Amino acid sequence: MENIQKKERILAIDALRGFAVMGIILLHNIEHFNFYSFPETTSPVLGALDKSLWDMLFFMFSGKAYAIFALLFGFTFYLQSRGSEKRGEDFKNRYMWRLLLLLGFGFVNSLFFPGEILVLYAILGFILVPVRHWSNKGLLILALILMLQPVEWLKVLCGFVNPEYAPKQMIFSLGNVYPQLGGESWWEMVKVNFTIGQLASLNWAWCYGRVFQTCSLFILGLWIGRVGYFDSSSEAALTKARTFWTYVLCFSLPLAVIFYFLKGFIFSIASQPLMLDSLKTIFNSWYNFCFMLA
User: How far is the CA of 260 from the CAs of 62, 67, 117, 257, 276, in angstroms?
Assistant: First the structure.
């Protein structure tokens, strides 16, 4: 009988993934899973406590948890593709099949929760297929370009050139879903969630920079796996990883603080609506990224 070897797991990755999932669930819990119906507060103390808890959870997990989850998506792709290559297999077809399965699970999930992200991940996950054989330098450059939010900078330029330019960006809104969430017809709720709710979720991801940020984090996760910054298989590899993450912490924490205060200043001086919305998307995205690394 063949000995079945237990697959080696990277405990740090499991811990980070668990932290990210916990943060996402906590935020969805206090948001009532996008069903924003809250009882009226009769006590000022309880009202202040609710607000403090809300602000604390969003400060700790909003952006950070989602960014970690996206980064680990790309890293997991690296682990799976490397394992397939060692066995002499091409991981591309299996990966795309898994993305289609993820898309199916996402559609099922969207029937009950319009804010799900599985559909978005399944669609954006295809970006890893054409870049999987790129050089490490090419991956890093592409990830940084996407993290810069190029489309939002184009909107800033359009708003600067034409101050009157203010196109409608949110074509689909979750506001059209809320009445059905609290309605009496289960079928109408499912139908609206699957159509308008899913379109609104994707529309929101596009308008608020999640599309480019998520793609960037997918690619960064692949790059981190390639260069071995989660590798602890030897003392030399562990030292290399610790040195890298120490440098990342030293740079990302001050940058997160700078972006936190800088974005408030920039938002206060931007008056053109399109420019303001795009600058919010850009600087919030950068702040979340730096805070995630810290």
Answer: 14, 17, 26, 5, 16
The pLDDT of residue 271: 84
Below-70 pLDDT ranges, the chain: 1-9, 37
The pLDDT value given to residue 228: 93
Please state, as a whole number, how many other Cβ atoms lie within 10 Å of the Cβ of residue 161. 8
Q: pLDDT for 144-174, tens place per residue? A: 999 999 999 999 999 999 988 888 888 888 7
Burial of residue 247 (number of CB atoms within 10 Å: 0-12, 13-18, 19+): exposed
Task: Give the list of residues 6+ apart from residue 128 with CB closer than 8 angstroms, or none.
Answer: 74, 77, 95, 218, 219, 222
Confidence (pLDDT) at 8 = 56
Q: What is the pLDDT of residue 3?
A: 40
The full DSSP string for the chain is ----PPPP--HHHHHHHHHHHHHHHHHHHHTTTT----PPP--HHHHHHHHHHHHHHHHHHTTHHHHHHHHHHHHHHHHHHHHHHHTT--HHHHHHHHHHHHHHHHHHHHTT-TT--HHHHHHHGGGHHHHTTS-HHHHHHHHHHHHT-HHHHHHHHHHHH-TT------SS-GGGTHHHHTSS-HHHHHHHIIIIIHHHHHHHHHHTTHHHHHHHHHHHHHHHHHHTTT--SSHHHHHHHHHHHHHHHHHHHHHHHHHHHHHHHHHHH--SHHHHHHHHHHHHHHHHHHHHH-
The pTM assigned to this predicted structure is: 0.91
